[in-house]
Records
---
Amino acid sequence: ENGVKMAIDEVNAAGGIEIDGKKRHVELLSEDDQGDPKTATNVAQRFVDAKVAGVIGHMNSGTTIPASKIYSDAGIAQISPSATATAYTIQGFKTAFRVMSNDTQQGRVLGEYAVNKLAAKRIAIVDDRTAYGQGLADEFEKAAKAAGAEIVKREFSNNTETDFNAVLTGIKGAKPDLIFYGGMDAQAAPLKKQAKKLGLSAIVMGGDGAQTPEFIKLAGADAEGMFATSPGTPKDQLAGGKAFLEKFKTKFGQDVQLYSPYSYDATHIMLKAMQAAGSSDPVKYLPKLAAMQYDGVTGPVSFDAKGDINNGAITVYSVKNGQWAIQEIVGGAAAK
C-alpha cells in the first residue's frame, strides 16, 4: 500500500494526470482482503461498485485469482505487484497483469538449481495445498524431473499446520537429498526445525513464501542452510533501488520488506497508460497498458500476451550466519 501511496503522491505533486484535457488528481481507495479468497471477492465487488479506474493488487495468489474474474467481468484493469501463481494469467483475462515473475519461472529456477547446483538426485516435496504452495510445488516437480531427479515422496499439509513430524518421519524413510516445501514462512520454519530434530540430513528448500526475515526469526539457529528463491532482483540491487529505498524510509519511517517497489512501479505504469490514452476509462487505456514499456525502480517492465512480465528475475538465496545471502540471480536486467 505504501508503494502505491508514494507513486500517487509523486504524480499528484506534479499536477496529476491529464484526463479529457484536464489535469486530475489521483485518489487512493484501500481495502484489506485479509489474505482470504471470499473477503477478496467482496473487496473486488466494492471496488467495482465504487467505479474505480484500476486496481493494484491483490497481494497473494489465493485472493488475486478469484478477484480477477470480478475485475474482468467489469472490464477494470488489475496489476498485481506480488501474486505469482501461473493460474492468474492463464485465464485469458485482458484486464490481468503482473510486474512480478510467476511460479512457472520460479519453479523452473528452483528445480534446476536443486538438481544442477545442489546435486539433489532424490527429492521429497511437501506443499500447503493453497493456490500458491501447490502451484509452486507442481512447477518445481516438473523442473526437477526434467533435470533428472527422482521424486521419492510427494506429501501435503495445509497453510495453518505447524506439526510436520508424521510427514517428515515418512519422508525420512525415503532418504531424500532435498526436501522442497511449497508454502509460507510460518510453516516452512517449523518444518525446517523438525527436520533437523528428526536427524534428516536433506537440504530444505522453499520459494518466496519462505524467503523472509520472519522465517529466520521463527526457525532460529535451525534456519541455517535453508535455500529459497524470491521473484525479482534483490531490493538493494534494483535498477533504481538505492534511491527508492532511501525515499521510502524517509517518507514512511520504515524499511521496504519486499513488494513496495513493485506496487510503486505498477501504479506508475497504470497512470502512464491513462495519461497516454487521455482517459481513465479502462476500455481506452488498456491497450496502452498492454503495450507499455517502462523503466521502473524494479527494472524494465513490459508485458507478454498473457499479462506476465517479460524476462522477470528470480533470485536464489540461502541462510548463512543468520542472514539471507544471495547465491544467484537468474534473468532480469542488470542493476544500473
Note: The radius of gyration is 20 Å.
---
Amino acid sequence: MKDKNTIFIILSVFIVIVAFIFVKEIVPIMNEKDCKNRVFNEMQAKSDDVIRGIVGMIGENSKDGLSSHNGIGSGVIFDKVDNTYYVVTAKHVINAVNTNFKIFTKDTEFSGQTINAGDNVNFEIPDEEYYNSLLDGKIEYISKTNDLAILSFIYDGDLTVLDFETNKLSKNNRIMVIGHPEGNRYKKTYGYIKSSLKDVRGDKVIEHNAYMKQGNSGGVALSENMKIAGINISGKFTLLGHFRSGYMIPYDIVEDNIKNWKNQE
C-alpha cells in the first residue's frame, strides 16, 4: 500500500510539472508563432509612407581614438523644423553614460554581412562604411517620470512626420508595431490591445500582443489610421525568452512629455 502511495505521489508531481511546463512554455511558444505571423493586410497596405517616419539608434562609444558600436533601438519622428527631425523613443535606449548615438533611417543603405539564423531572424554585421554613413543623434529631453526620451538629428532628406492618435484606445483595437528586432530592420508586426491602462515597473502602459523583441524598445505602435498610438518600452516573456505580450506608453502620456520638453526650451 505504501509503495502505491509513493507511486501516486510521484505520478502526481510529474503531472503537475508537465502541466506547468505546458502552460508556461509550450502555450507561449504557440502564441508567439501566431503573433509573429499575424498580418493585417489593410494596415500593411498603408505602411509604405509611415515607415519613412521610423528610425533606429545605435550606441557609439569612443576611447583612445577608437569607436565601438553596440545595441540597437527604435524611434519615431513626430516633428520637423527646417532640416532637423525630432524623435521620441524609450529612455532606457539612450541612458548609457558617455555614449553618443547614431541614427539610421529608411534611406540608410546597409553594408556588411547578413547571417540568416532561421525563423525570419537575421543577424547583420555592419562594416565601417555603414557606421560612417550614420547620422549624429542629439539628446533633447529625458523624462523624469516615464521611460521616454526625445532625440534630434539633422538630415536633408525627406522623411515622414507622424501624427498622434486622437481617439481613445480600447481593448481589441488593432495596432501595427514597427521596429528593429532580432537584426531585422523595419520589421512590421500586428496585434490587438489587450488591457486598459496599468502600472508596470513605474510606468503607465497598455498591454498588447503585437510581437516584440530586443530592438523594438522605443519603437512605435500605430493605430489603424496610421497614427502614433504608443511607444513600446518593454514586454513580458517566458523564462526561456518566448514572447507573451508587449507594453506601450499610450500616446497621451507621450504628448504630455513632449509638452514638458517644449516648456523647458
Note: Helices lie at 2-37, 41-45, 47-50, 128-133, 251-264.
---
Amino acid sequence: VEIEALGAAARFGPHDPADFQAADLVVVSPGVDQRLPVFAAAAARGVPVMGELELAARFAHEPVVAVTGTNGKTTVTELIGRMLAAAGRRVFVGGNIGTPLCRYLDGERGAELLVLEVSSFQLDTMEVFRPRVAVVLNITPDHLDRYRDMEEYARSKMRLLANQGAGDAAVLNGADPWIRRLSGAAAVRRVYFQGRRPGEDGAHITPEGIDFHLPGHAIGPLSAADIPLPGTHNRENVAAAVLAARLAGGTEAGCRTALAAFRGLPHRLELVAEIGGVRYVDDSKATNVDAVVRALEGFTAPVVLIAGGRDKGGGYRELEAPVARGVKRLILLGEAAPLMQSSLGRLVPPGTAPHRDAAAPAARA
C-alpha cells in the first residue's frame, strides 16, 4: 500500500476504537459521519476530531472566499475564481471541488486569495475556519439521510458565517427563509443577490438582466445577453458570483471578462448532442429535488426525464408540479425508483431501467 511506504499504518475493515482513542488527532472524511460512536468516544477523551478543511484552516493565512449552498456552489465557486483571475489576482480554487486545501498548503502556495467550495459535511467540524467573504446560495432539502431534519441541515450550512466578524462580508439569498432566519447578528456586511429588501445592498434580478447596488464597489447592470448560462437559477448564480468577486477585491472589468468566456461546467445542463431534433442534456450533477426542479424550469419542449439513484430522504412532492407541466415520460432507476414512481407515476407514464447504461436506450424506446 502506497501510504504504508510513506511510513503510515493502514487499517481496513471495521473501525477499532483503540486506533482513535490513542490518536493525537482524528481527521474525518466528509463522507463519514463524525457523530459515529468511535469519533464521539475519541472526542470525549480529548482527542481533536475534525475534517480536512478545518485542519487546513489552521495553517492557511490567505484571505478566503467560501461558497456553500444546496445547489449551484460549484458553478459560483468557479465563476468567482475566474472573475478574480481576470482582474489579475493570483487565485487558488478548490476545497470540496478539485484540489483539497491541504494539498494546496503542501505545495508551492503563492495565491493571494483562496476561493473554496464548502459542503455542509465540512462545516460540521468547523472551529476556526473564517472566510472573509462567505456566500450562502440556498438551503433546500438534501442529505436528510444524514441530518435529523431540515433545521439541523440548515444550521450546518449557516455555520459558514459563525466565525465572521468586523470587516468580513456575507453574500446571501434574501429570498430563502432558512438563510434569512439563521444569518445571525454578527458585525458583518450583508449583501443579497436576490430577495433584497429596501435599504439593503446587493442585486436585483429581472427578466432583462441583473441590477446591482453595492456602494464602494460600483457595478453596472448586466443584460440578459451578458449572461451566457440558461435558466433563472444561473442568473442567481451570476449575481452571487459578481457580488462576491467585487467584495473580495475583483474588478467590474474582470467580472465581465470572465462571465463572457464562461460556458458552464460539465454535467450541469450540458448539451451532449442533438439528434433528429431531440436534444440530449446531461444534468447528472442535479442530485437533489430542488436541482431537478430548477433544471426542468429551463425547458419549454417536452422532456423525457431520467432520474433516480440514491434516495436522500425528504420526498418528491416538489417535483409533482414541474413533472406534470413539462415531462412527458419518466425513466427511473436505482434505489429511489420505487419511491419516485409512487409519488410521480400517476402524473406521467413511468418506465424503469435496470442500470444507468440502459437508461438512454429506454428513454428513446
Note: DSSP finds 15 helices and 16 strands in the chain.
---
Amino acid sequence: METTRQLKIARLIQKELAEFLRGNTQITGQGVMISVTQVRISPDLSQARIYISVFPSAKAEETNKNLEDQTKMIRYELGRKIAKQVRIIPELRFYIDDSLDYVARIDELLK
C-alpha cells in the first residue's frame, strides 16, 4: 500500500518526466512516441520505477536502452524541475510497459 506522499511524488515525477521526454527527441529517437504510464516510488522515496509505453513497439528495447544510457542526465533535469517539492531526487529505473500489446494480443486471439 502506497502512502499519500508516495502517490504525490509519483504523480509529480510522471508529469515532469512526460513533459521532458516529449520535448527531447534526441534521447527517445526520431519517430518514436513515449508515454509514461506509471511511476512507483519506494517507501523511503529513494528509487522510482518508471513504466513507459513505446510506439511503435518494435523500437521499445532500443528506446529503453537509450533511456538507461541517459539516466544521469534525465535525473539531473528532473531534479532541476522538482527540487523545490522534494528533498531527495530518486534514482530512476526504466521498464517497458507492455500491457497495451498484451491487450491487443488477447483481443486478436478472441476474434
Note: The chain has a mean pLDDT of 89.
